[in-house]
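New here. Your pick:
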Amino acid sequence: MSSNYRQARYKEDLLIERADSREVEDNPLPKSISRDEAPKIPDLPKHEIVRYFNRLSQMNYGIDTGFYPLGSCTMKYNPKFTEKIGSHPKATEIHPYQPEEMVQGTLEIMYELQELLAELGGMQSVSLQPAAGAQGEITGLMIAHQYHKDNDDERNEVILPDTAHGTNPASVSMMGYDLVEIPSEDGCVDIDALEEAAGEDTAVFMITNPNTLGLFEKDACQISEIIHQNGGLLYYDGANLNAIMGKTDPGAMNFDIMHFNLHKTFSTPHGGGGPGSGPVGVTEELSSYLPIPIVEKDSEGYHLNYDLENSIGRVKGIYGNWLVLLKAYAYIKEKGKDGLEEATERAVLNSNYLRKKLEPHLDLPYRELRKHEFVLSGKKMKDKGLKTTDLAKRLLDYGFHAPTIYFPQLVDEALMIEPTETETKETLDRFAEAVASIMDEDEEVIGDAPHNTSVGRVDETKAVRDSVLSYKMREE
């Protein structure tokens, strides 16, 4: 397969090269998009071009450049060994429609990843198909909807706490469910409010645990009892799974459905909007509802099973983001059970260390031990006539990307900070020192920041009201 495939690629490239070398008399392009004259491309020496594009890359900020303390987004360092594995020709040059007997190694990896994720989540079965955490949420809600429908149960409500992960309300809306939001008490689910909200119309209760404040929902088992007594299902948003791996799992908390964020917890690329991966895990009762196909193993090898009795069908064109799955698989195998548990411990340690360093300078609502992330309030900035966004912009001058700001909305002037397990104590100390220094600066310095970046402060109000959405310059 590999030899024939490479020969075909070589012949195709050769034909393209020959076609490019000939002058084509009949222009196949419509006149409306055809050039009347050759493009005016400057004639520059190669080293000038190299310098130009290198300079552009240096103007950007990325996880390989510095600290990314984005809360809830887990912008951890991506190991280079997984990137190397993900770029191997044996991974990149296969086709999703090759016969199963020709891709047994690929199917074996997918099968093992399904099993590993099921164990980590305390679930019975896993589908690797969803291409992002948000798509995993939709998939989970589709499974719940079909399950209730098969039981002649027309439930139309999904309950969310006000600490829900940001995509949860959108997923509920897209599925056509009615959203019922309940308040928090001391940063966690208000049990009395949940008991009052739960009823015969409750299809699903969705929760992230730890929640977006970084607090562990210690009443998770009581929450599950309330929902199950009312005939509903529990959905676990796996956005913050990196705070509990090796210590507990959603299955132990009696969740029925969950999704994993491979592009968060398992260190595959997250920036630039993707590519992501949001596998969905379910209990035994819901296993037949998973999207098809799933990978199974028998005495003859590995194969794709398209015959699940109650399957909701496909949620993605092929079988998931294969290269992301491969990178996550390599990360899990390299870490092992003990390594994943250590990653959890370091994530929680880093979070609480940085929290203590920042407490003297910013307000901390809900003064309890946090897990992998914490939320501070920048309301002290108001004393200077400034806002949290000004602090965030000033951090750029100190060489740090800003934390997530203004989320969750239940915290005034919120800064949501997640150090992740990969950052060193020295990096966390420098970040804390930068925040302390900024809080002592004059309002003019902070209010006009950033001063040292390639692009200065943008007029955000004008950008919203007068957006230029074309790559072409607007004519004055």
Summary: The chain has a mean pLDDT of 90.
